[in-house]
Amino acid sequence: MTATPTPTPTPEPAGTAPSEAPEKDRTDERLVHRSLLSRLMGRPELGAVVGAVAVFVFFSFAAESFLRASSLSTVLYASSTIGIMAVPVALLMIGGEFDLSTGVMVTSSSLISSMFSYQMTANVWVGVGVSLLLTLGIGFFNGYLLVRTKLPSFIITLGTFLMLTGLNLGLTKLISGTVSTKGIGDMEGFASAQALFASELSVGSVQIQVTVVWWLALVAVATWILLRTRAGNWIFAVGGGQDTARAVGVPVARTKICLYLGVALGAWISGQHLLFNYDVVQSGEGVGNELIYIAAAVIGGCLLTGGYGSAVGAAVGALIFGMTSKGIVYAQWEPDWFKFFLGAMLLIATLLNAYIRKRAEANR
Amino acid sequence: MTAEKTTGKDTEEQVGGAVQDAAAAEGTPLVELSDVSKLYGNIRALEGVSLPVHAGRITCVLGDNGAGKSTLIKIIAGLHQHDSGSFRINGEETRLGSPREALDRGIATVYQDLAVVPLMPVWRNFFLGSEPVKGRGPFSRLDVDRMRRTTHSELLRMGIDLRDVDQPIGTLSGGERQCVAIARAVYFGAKVLVLDEPTAALGVKQSGVVLKYVAAARDAGLGVVLITHNPHHAYLVGDRFVLLKRGAMAGSHRKEELALDELTRQMSGGSELEQLSHELERAPVPQHLE
Amino acid sequence: MSRLERFRGKRAGARAGRAAVAGLLAAAIPLAGCSSTGGKRAEEERNAAVGGEAAVGTPRWKIAMVSHSGEGDTFWDIVQSGAEDAARKDNIEFLYSHDDEAGRQAQLVQSAVDKKVDGLIVSLAKPDAMKGVLKKAAKAGIPVVTVNSGQDESRKFGALAHIGQDEVLAGEAVGRELNDRGRKKAVCVLHEQGNVGHEERCRGIRETFDGKVRNLHVDGTNMPSVESSLEAELQSDGGIDSVVTLGAPFAPTAVKAAEGAGSKAEIDTFDLNDQVVTGLKDGSLGFAVDQQPYLQGYEAVDLLWLHRYNADMLGGGKPVLTGPQILTKKDAPTLQKYTKRGTR
């Protein structure tokens, strides 16, 4: 750790205590170029990838039907519905904040577009647009409140979570008269919106849900932002050292609000999928999913304290979730143990991450 | 080491280098505080403090906890404004409104615990807040190659040879982290470098490393304000020593006016310490220890 | 009469609130592109406004219903509207509360008892937790009717009557229907882990069904996960020829899952809603087992009114069964009208 650079030697500070002993050999060690392996070891998503391979191999043996192309497509679909949210949630967590309102925000978003279209008898695309604006508004509310009040995001989004849960039920009941929305499948624009948010694509003989495409696109965009743009640098910085970032001129407040807007965008995409896949939305849905998104991000190598993680990792975390939850079904196991199994997975993955990170840092 | 003559404002400007000639004088100080006071409510945090910062010179500010060092830093860094006295940058009376304004005027402050973001790679830290980009519109992206190369070469210039600028800066030693922060300030065109206790949390060897880069920054022509409570460190690099005590100036000396032990004595409480040692000697031995 | 007017006023207030929200939405996008098909306009064209007012001259009694419903449960929503309609007719002030956690449900019952209501309607999903408060209600002289679940305990706890469906019986009916349809291998889809009633339904199926039944637990609050789990189940066993969902919202999802898995399995479901009836009509669903939630709510309130008005009783000490009723394609056209307005 305390490697000393080796420029022109300077006299030791006079009149001070004797210098610490052998540091020379460590200086030499530092000169060794980092191998590809140790570079790989330093990646945040490595633990998740190892975990994903392990789960995949495990279920390949445990469930004979797991390896069929159609099964894998189902697993990918399950993963994508988590992953679309896990990726922006991961970015937010790298930025050092939480969002507990994500699960119900997805439901809110789909309720808004469904009810607006229905009540206004509008082309559903209008509802979809209104939903985008209002959902971004919710995200902005979270972010703005956070930077203004400086309260922990845990508290603020817990508040939004409860408020949205209540609003979803209350407004739906008030507007639709029942706790689920009315079907909008016979309305104009539904077919084209469904094509965008909830269709299936044929790849060879396999049907791939369009959510998988959304998911991969989000991973690509998020990775690009994180690693190759100024905004990405700022996200890491506000999560890893907010005060330092502010001191060097990073717009901390703006960065955080944008992260919440990103989460809202993810919620909008998921919400539209929910609506156009099932036509009718149940207003009580979504509660509890926020923890799954966070868990996927953590399995993917995001530090709970912020400043470290990756979008690819979160996507792999979602994949682990998808493989495990469906793998248990393919293996035809008693499902009572499912939650236990998931919890154990989460712990193992997190421990593995911590272990690998430690090894990686020791290897430098 | 270098010596200076603080009164020679009228002579030609002189930058850099190990100037041995005590008669040689600097030009207008880059930053000059004279008789500055600061009140927090009715508590006088700083009173009548004067401090010149010349190009290529290191001004050390020494004082115990609560002596007013951090208030002084905050005024220079633009976080607080002084209540009376004058604050001149390049001879021009100024009142800084924000840290950003201070940065724009060439004053960079390196705080001991806020220097870098530990989990981020060295090169990302180096350019944090001022990242170069290429391409335009949605394709505008970080110029990663340039960032990596510049980081490496700039650190090399400061004498730090990092093989891998991709390692998290947290894996560097505390001294090296301070050095990266200093190198960053130099690279982004700082003329005045304010260092807040850069050696406070460091071991002896590490402290030496940091002081070396402080000296390197001075040699690059920067004016340096070094805040410390360690007279040994200060004496190694300082050209002028400003002593603070309970918010007031307890002395301002050029190096040649002052020997190390005198500085240490003044710094560590001077006559108060003598009094203490006197009392300790005469303290009666407790009975149960006899 | 003045009470009635106040009551009407409240209704008008709710309507005004609804209009205000709609107005707000309208103001958001003045130039909204309109849909010429479906939507609110179509609904309004379909429905003549249905008003309601009290048909009796009894004083305004107060009846509370406390259910074990979770948030946003479609089934209980229908029970509630049945109860509200009966309350309107019988000039009754109707109070509804619910909590899916037994301890908190008991607290809600307690607070109804504290309010000295004139009648109490309770669902006994977890009977043991309700024993104490129901005793207190009996002590306070409040008549109790149990609904939906708890038919075995209803009499023991001193309730007037139980109105509901025997879950095992309903399951058995499904099992027989599956036999009639020549099914060999069924999946019973449970969307709430630990729900006793759901376990009973699946057990009932297992008892009468000649083929094999497998239970599949899914996460009911996460529709995409329900779909993918069921898809996985169908992919892993191609021999499955029927799927029984335990809640109406999950039936259309099961249809999608079967499509996705390329399975020919027939989808059948417990309970009704508009989508289920549409499914029955177009043949994507085989049959639905209804327990008439509207009737449960309506009858419970009406019985309490009758009891107070005329000391009437129902069921003769036996549960009053509102189901099971097997509904198929031929019932769909009649049902559609009622599911659309949310009473079936």
From TrEMBL, chain A:
Keywords: Cell inner membrane, Cell membrane, Membrane, Sugar transport, Transmembrane, Transmembrane helix, Transport. The keyword Nucleotidyltransferase does not apply. InterPro entries: ABC_transp_permease (IPR001851). It is a multi-pass membrane protein. This is Xylose transport system permease protein XylH. The chain crosses the membrane at residues 46-63, 75-95, 124-147, 154-171, 206-227, 257-275, 287-304, 311-331, 337-356. The keyword Cytoplasm does not apply. Residues 1-12 have a biased composition (Pro residues). Pfam families: BPD_transp_2. Residues 1-28 are annotated as: Disordered. Part of the binding-protein-dependent transport system for D-xylose. Probably responsible for the translocation of the substrate across the membrane. It is found in: Cell membrane.
Automatic annotation (TrEMBL), chain B:
Residues 1-20, 271-290 are annotated as: Disordered. Residues 1-12 have a biased composition (Basic and acidic residues). GO terms for molecular function: ATP binding. SMART domains: AAA (SM00382). Signal peptide: none annotated. The keyword Nucleotide-binding applies. Pfam families: ABC_tran. Keywords: ATP-binding, Nucleotide-binding. Coiled coil: none annotated. InterPro entries: AAA+_ATPase (IPR003593), ABC_carbohydrate_import_ATPase (IPR050107), ABC_transporter-like_ATP-bd (IPR003439), ABC_transporter-like_CS (IPR017871), P-loop_NTPase (IPR027417). The keyword Metal-binding does not apply. Gene3D superfamilies: P-loop containing nucleotide triphosphate hydrolases (3.40.50.300). Residues 31-271 form the ABC transporter domain. This is Sugar ABC transporter ATP-binding protein. It comes from Streptomyces daqingensis.
UniProtKB/TrEMBL annotation, chain C:
This is Sugar ABC transporter substrate-binding protein. It comes from Streptomyces daqingensis. Residues 63-305 form the Periplasmic binding protein domain. It is found in: Cell envelope. CDD domains: PBP1_ABC_sugar_binding-like. It comes from the Bacteria. Gene3D superfamilies: 3.40.50.2300. Belongs to the bacterial solute-binding protein 2 family. InterPro entries: Bact_Solute-Bind_Prot2, Peripla_BP_I, SBP_2_dom. Pfam families: Peripla_BP_4 (PF13407).
